[in-house]
Write a structure and sequence with these properties.
This protein has 15 helices and ten strands. The protein is an alpha/beta fold. The N and C termini lie far apart (53 Å). The structure holds 5-phosphoarabinonic acid (PA5).
Length: 413
Amino acid sequence: MDIKADLTYGGLDVRAIEKRRKDVAGALDRLWSGELHFTGWVNDPHTFTDEMVRELEDTAAEIRGKSDFFVVLGVGGSFMGAKAVIDLLEPVDEKDRTRVIFAGYNFSGRYIQEVKRQIGDSDFSLCVISKSGSTTETLSAYGIFKEMMLEKYGPDETAKRTYVVTEHKSSFLFDQASEEGCRIFDLALDIGGRYSVLTPVGLLPIAVAGIDIEKIMKGARSIADKESFAGDGLDYSIARNLQYEKGKKIEVFEFFDPYFAYFGEWLKQLFGESEGKDGKGLFPASLMFSRDLHSMGQFLQQGTQCFFETFITADEAAADERIPDIAMKPFAGKTIEQINRCAVNGVADAHIKAGIPVIRISVPRVDEEITGELLYYFEIQCGVSALLSGVDPFDQPGVEAYKKEMRSYIEAL
Ligand code: PA5
């Protein structure tokens, strides 16, 4: 495994962690046993065969061949993973590439108009992603972009340019897409939205963006077994639970690279929806450094100590830039990433000296395989962590409450 979790400065007693290792091994067994609902993702890197990956790649090539834009409509687990991976890995040097744009994750008229303006007269295809096939954000946006497509291409071509990812069972989306002859990719019934990035939900948009999904799956597959998480492999899950028991209520994921911003959003959804129930759960937050050191750095250093920090960093940067000699000393002649490294170490030292628990999760670099590992790693840590705290990681009953209230306002319009 390329991922290292360093708990040295987590402020926890090593023996307390060791004592819980039997419990986490039991939780991992439960994830693998099939006794829990919605655990199809656990073995997905193995069951999602190379042939299925190739089918997605062929579809992506077809889409790229006919589209300047691929407009992906989905919300929550139906878009965050793909956006996180594309932000991290999108090739920058490819000319004439198909741009993946996400919509259907908000109710902003201005946002929709801006996406329509960007598409303009260009060719585009649509991807509608919804496990339930009935989500308000996704389906409202679908109506709008479908109308735009019908006006441009007519019904036959619209059906050919519409790609749907949903459960293979009756819903508004599934029924309509089947009737119109759109291409439908199946989201397995036993995989929930926030654990679906390594299925067509994430992989189709990622492949259209020009990222090698075979390598992503290879990375995930390389750690998709119990042995990879044996010994101290689940200490991060234990540490999160121990921090909570010690009174910490917030886990702040901290990044030092703006391309990780959506990875932070994906983590917030994964942990927030999996753990926040029955009056329990760490509130997951994320900060982007160095930007947020100039806004939240003060709070972290001296504010209410209700949180612990989890740094997520790569040892090797994707690119670097030398600061020229004309710049101010002592920065001149150094590289921007050397200074970034000083920021990582400096923040860690200052926060540790202030008594803040700091967990450090690092990877050697960010490439496709390691990204596949990271996605799978956090899904496992999250599932285990939630089971340790005694909640069901795979339901989200609380989400229904606001949906019901919102629906009654919509129906009264
Ligand atoms: O993780 C989840 O289950 C949710 O965040 C869903 O992904 C989100 O609510 C969107 O639902 P759907 O995919 O059914 O449109």
